[in-house]
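Closing statement on the zinc ion sub-project.
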Amino acid sequence: MLVLFLFLIGIFIGSFLNVLIDRLPKDKSILGRSYCDFCKKTLKTKDLIPLLSFILLSGKCRYCHKKLSYQYPTVELLTGLLFVITYQFATLNFQFSIFNYQLIYYLFVVSGLIVLFVADLKYYIIPDKITTVLGILASIFLLFNPELIIPHLVSGSLAFLFFLAVYILTKGRGWGFGDVKFAFVMGLILGPIGVVLALYVAFLTGATVGIILILWRKKGLKSIIPFAPFLAFGTYISLLFSEIIIPHLPFYLW
Ligand SMILES: [Zn+2]
């Protein structure tokens, strides 16, 4: 029952995340009714039920019958699934209860990571508002856990300086300034060990995907591959699984 409840909450939040993904990079207001991307008709409430409306309309706009993007059901489903997975692993690792503030914090972080992932993939933009909100949430969480403030602040600063150095040396070709700012927030959320693991996962998956795309000749060596999706993926893996993964890594020395 609880899992189903979290899944349903997740797909509704996922439908809101779709709004953030498409409006924040264009500096549009996130308030106001949703409309069709093609004919701009305002959608009725019955067209806005997550997943279900997409299935009932067989993926087409009710008015102009143009094909709707698979982004909408994918993000909704992904958010639902990640809410359930996050709850399952968080209760396993940290004995969270459903009303634990730490679980709610984690679900907010997951939501922010999904927006960063898709917005950067689609528009090559990391919305500043999401980075800022995640930074504020992490700061509030640290106020509840004062012993973590110094190590997490230092981790964020070091990650920021590392990303800034590469950004300056590569004249912004390695990654954009949005990634530099997000690196600080990653450190703030994850702390020293967590941020190293997250970056390790991000670079490993980023390099793997990059090589595959080049071999497939989908991308040239000089074309842009957005990096925030890998940072978001690394952050999620580290947030939930660092306590399981770290003891198995070959460089584990502490
Ligand atoms: Zn339409």
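The CA atoms of residues 56 and 220 lie 40 Å apart. With this model delivered, the sub-project is considered complete and its resources will be redirected to Aim 3.
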